[in-house]
Amino acid sequence: MPHITSNGITLHYTDTGGEGRPVVLIHGWPLSGRSWADQEGALVDAGYRAIAYDRRGFGDSDKPESGYDYDTLAADLAGLLDGLDLSDVTLVGFSMGGGEVARYLGTYGDERVHSAVLAAAVPPYLLKTDDNPDGGLGDGDVQGMIDGVTTDREGFLEQFTTGFYSVDGAVVVDDQQFQEALALEAQAVDAGLAGCIAAFGRTDFRADLAKIAVPTLVIHGDSDATVPFEVSGKRSAEAIEGSTLVVVKDAPHGLNVSHKVEFNTALLEFLAR
To answer: Which CATH number is 3-271's, of 3.40.50.150, 3.40.50.1820, 3.90.1150.10, 2.30.30.140?
Structure first.
């Protein structure tokens, strides 16, 4: 399995290869690059080169005790793109991974980037503040998640994953899919779990979104209880000029698994434009 040194750490990644336009897949919290399994095959079949990597602290990548802020995570992504010398890339960020897409474009620009996808993603800003009253989380909510994963990791992750794949309180994936997610989460280091909660819960991406000039797809489930559409997807689509919005009916947060057909169709239609 290939690894690359990026920003001083080693990142594990998968690469389907080929001559197709590269699509870089950035996973959500608390999963790994393997969570994109239902997309990789569809991308290859459509002629694209799919590259998925494990964020620092997750999967098979290095697991340092620090560096779980978005400036560092975007630098990790930049190192991957530079190290593999990728150009004309579509960046696809799911949930927390959408923050890396936004911060990368806001910081490094779009010289290497063809287009972007924010999938059930955390931008523009989850934290409720005086100038962001439409955020979805109070600071106490963020700290509560940190405390939960710190004091009862296994119990918290099982509860979180239940909500991740639920609509109106009912889990909409099968038990194998649910257990596969828990297995991916088990690989994460404690510091990464807690540090990333602070990052996605408290980072303001509004200035980053204002700088995005490449074609952008925002795809979100209308029944997402983890990162509600009204808090994130709707606002991101409004903030990015010319963006394309796809709302998937009856889809939870983990819609790339639960509603993979609808997700892949929207993704491939966007890529083909």
So the answer is: 3.40.50.1820
* 220 catalytic per annotation: no
* Active-site pick, 232, 253, 258, 259: 253
Would you call 130 a catalytic residue per the annotation? no
Interval 48-78: pLDDT, tens = 999 999 999 999 999 999 999 999 999 999 9
Peptide bond into 228 cis (omega under 30): no
Tell me whether residue 224 is one of the annotated catalytic residues.
Answer: yes
Taken in order 25, 107, 247, 156, the sign of the CA dihedral is positive
In 3-state terms, what secondary structure has residue 170?
Answer: strand
The reply to whether the predicted model has a pTM over 0.85 is yes
Residue with tokens 């794949």: 165
Given the residues 224, 232, 243, 259, the one annotated as active site: 224
In the set 6, 32, 95, 166, the catalytic residue is: 95
Do residues 220 and 247 lie in contact, with contact meaning Cβ atoms separated by under 8 Å?
yes
